[in-house]
Amino acid sequence: MPQSLASVYLHVVFSTKHRAPAITPDLRPRLYPYLAGTALGSGTKLLDAGGVADHVHLLVSLGRELTIADLVKTLKAGSSRWVHDTFPGRRDFAWQAGYGAFSVGFPELGAVRAYIDSQEDHHRATPFQGEFRALLTRHGVAWDERYVWD
Fold this sequence. Notes:
Elements: E1 9-15, H1 28-41, E2 45-52, E3 55-61, H2 68-86, E4 100-104, H3 109-117, H4 119-122, H5 128-138, H6 145-148
Antiparallel strand pairs: 1-3, 1-4, 2-3
Helix pairs in contact: 1-2
């Protein structure tokens, strides 16, 4: 087969450093399009983005030639630099060191989009740490509590 084709969807989650409420209502509508452009520049398509003040959820169609780690590194470094350059008063903006990346099957894309789009409602009752632990459990990921949070 001469072509290389892929259908790899990921739900990527990462928080701000120490879960600071740094993704303010004025930043959010500009941050998500910036992340979409950064993803596209890496050969990945951002299908949906959402979150609340202390973390983001991204639904991506991963490019064929990119690792998950490289994508997340590019997204976090580029967006952090962009926030510093665009909002000079936010020099303390930073992302946590880690992230979660969870596989999504094509049939589940709609459900994951709905989940991402309902983050404001979801987090009225559930803090980020509880949500992240639930995602890890649902996807069968073992973790050590000492190393999940920074």
